[in-house]
Amino acid sequence: MDVTIVIPTKNGGELLDRVLKGIYMQETVYQYEVICVDSGSNDETISIIKKYPCKLYEIPSHEFGHGKTRNFGASKGTGEYIIFITQDALPASRMWLQNFIDAMKSDPEIVGGFGIHYTYPDCNIIDQRDLAQHFKNFGTDNTIFQLTDSNRKKYETEEAYRHFMVFFSDNNSCVRRDIFEKYPYDDVDFAEDQIWARKMIEMGYKKLYCPFAPVYHSHNYKLTTYFQRYFDEYKGLYKLHHFLISTSWLKIPLQIVKHTLDDVRYIRTLEISKKEKIYWSKYSACRNFSRYVGGYLGGKYAGYSKRRRKWLDYHISQQYKQRNA
Questions:
Q1: What is the pLDDT of residue 223?
Q2: How many other C-beta atoms can be found within 10 angstroms of the C-beta atom of residue 7?
Q3: How much of the chain is helix, strand and coil, in % rounded to 5?
Q4: CA dihedral in degrees (85, 231, 12, 122; nearest 10)?
Q5: pTM
Q6: Mean pLDDT for all residues in the chain
Q7: Which helix (H) or strand (E) holds 225?
Q8: DSSP letter string over 284-314?
Q9: Going by DSSP bridges, is the β-strand pair 90-91/206-216 parallel, antiparallel, or unpaired?
Q10: In sequence order, what DSSP letters do the residues of 74-140 get, joined into one string?
Q11: CA geometry: angle 268, 269, 272, nearest 5 deg
Q12: I need a surface site. Which of 40, 81, 136, 309 has the fewest CB within 10 A?
């Protein structure tokens, strides 16, 4: 088998049906299998999966872990390459799989790669801008990243560059099985993909960015959900990079105002109605509150007492709620 595609699922709904349909419509010379690992769906997810020639494995919700569940799914396949996508990442091209594996095979030192994400048409305007700019930074052609003598000092001293070098996303990623079986994902709550990529980069391996293997992937969460997600995200970023979104509560109000003003300047350039501009400006202010307050709590998580961490996980963490649903 050339490729194993692993998809963790839970209550994937109609979008999962579209994702699986898109996978099985791929135009490729490679043989591939699809493995779904479901962690307690209570909607039509199981029946949707059974419509397709997937291998289905079911685990209890409390057994889910971003790293260990993907490790489990990968272990059930035989593909030389393992592609990880999420249940809401829709292949945006019938050449997605072919282009991804062709790019991975272009250099024998490439051990992992990630593909571009497009936003869905209904995505909020803030994420439309941010996601487009984020992936634009990686280039417009297949690009290989490696830590060498020429960029090692920059990697060690510049935090932003280090984030850039180790970015990796399991929404749309590919790894070589021979390497992944030696170095599987860590069993962590968040950022298992970037933790793995950092290890590979620091071991001297090459990482690929493939803009020709696109998926649609974006969200329109409730603002309260963004608070939970930023808490989890910055808890993971601290573990990975010791990164703090803010070093003091006192700095947070100014950071919120500055970020919101930047957003407002962007919103004013858009060809939308005045009413819409007011709405999105308010949205930005609320979301940046979630970003900086939730992110601050997540970044400081490691320094809190065990009792306080337990309280924060129970009341805020989206990952905790997903595992214990």
A1: 84
A2: 25
A3: 50, 15, 35
A4: -90
A5: 0.91
A6: 95
A7: helix 223-241
A8: HHHHHHIIIIIHHHHHTGGGS-HHHHHHHHH
A9: antiparallel
A10: HHT---SEEEEE-TT-EESSTTHHHHHHHHHTT-TTEEEEEEEEEPPTT--HHHHHHHHHHHHTT-S
A11: 75
A12: 136
